Amino acid sequence: MPHVIRFDHVGITVEDLDLVTDFFVALGLEVEGRTFVEGEFLDTVCGIPDSRTEIVMLTTPDGGTRLELARFVRPDAVPGRPAAMANELGLRNVAFEVDDLQAAVDQVASEGYGLVGGIGEYEGIWRMAYVRGPEGIVVSLAERIG
Q: What is the distance between the alpha carbons of residues 28 and 26, in angstroms, rounded to a whole number?
């Protein structure tokens, strides 16, 4: 018997919430809300006593996908590996379809973020690139071309 009803969101823990939020807004996501969470609920769910987070929920323009960015106020953040490559175990990227791949790549480049590799084409159907954004977050951008 299946238990999943729908895909709700992807969550990413970050250190600089404003910087990372601005990066995703520049790509076209919209801020749905921003709040602090603390107390018994958070302590129970994340397993960290006396924790406090600030959360920004972002959504795609069509409202179909949401991205939760969270910054721990307490306890301090623990660094990850921002330069992790695609073959390192764990969540490696968040993917979005874009209407103009080159324009999206140029937009993030103007903010100081670059490609992990290059722009590839898959069977004349998709053009795709990995962009490494703030705090090492890898975003996969794909444009349907066929």
A: 5
